[in-house]
């Protein structure tokens, strides 16, 4: 049975390993301002974090991860390139699975380097690969930047593209929207009736729930504009489905994506970024011929990642969460840096899960 002492010992060893790569050891307060995280993720974060109120600091939450406070710390200095490593407890509510820990140790490695983005991606992936070397794990990679490029290149309205991008991390909602925008599902009858009405507010109160009449009217006008927008073509939908459905080794994926880019040129830049990253991974000793790429990877639990994403999973304990996850989060640095972005990529690893895999051998 794994003990707390063993977990802490492994965490210290992992952090020392990342420090040897140049990571400056940093820490972050256990209590974090809730306002920052709510601004980033919206009210959804309340379902995953422990939130309370302090008479002096206002609303605060137990640290749900290290990435946000580390980015905030870095953005105060703008030192570049920079590397950081850390270890400590994070806290996550587990509403649907009582068997999963709501407090666990996390060790991370973050790289802020805009001089060689592909190289930084490869460096972080290789660092995690080295940390889990010899264990029965499988890796998965993806690229959120490829998906956003494909959506941004669709021949449809900016409003529809914005809606799809906003719900990219909610696959069911994304599919529902895409089906509607492609004309695969009919417009709900209540919406058709509402938009056809001369006065949608007839018989309504002055204000509707928490929305003012002007806010509701703006939403109705937006829906009317959307109803006039032509459906996304079947060919574009098929190309997007092809990207989302990719599950192959990197060389085969590169070949498929170059074919897709002929008909969807908007992804050409993202495809070349993936090619440079593949070369960088190979230069770091990663066997890219065996490395898996999944078109939909990273869409369910990596909401602030906007480029390269990856994870490591046990092949002997399918019940375990990811042993390690990581990715690029340039957009997050822009949000926390008042518009000034610093290319950044990082990853976290759970020493308790590493020990659990080792126990199962």
From TrEMBL:
Q: Name one GO molecular function term.
A: histidine-tRNA ligase activity
Q: What is this protein called?
A: ATP phosphoribosyltransferase regulatory subunit
Domain Class II Histidinyl-tRNA synthetase (HisRS)-like catalytic core stretches: 11-170, 222-349
Keywords from the UniProt entry: Glycosyltransferase, Transferase
A single Gene Ontology CC term: cytoplasm
Where L-histidine is bound, by residue? 65-67, 92, 106, 110, 299, 304-305
Cross-referenced Pfam families: tRNA-synt_His
What InterPro entries does the record point to? aa-tRNA-synth_II/BPL/LPL, HisRS-like_core, HisRS/HisZ
* Domain of life of the native organism: Bacteria
Q: Which GO BP terms sit in this record?
A: histidyl-tRNA aminoacylation
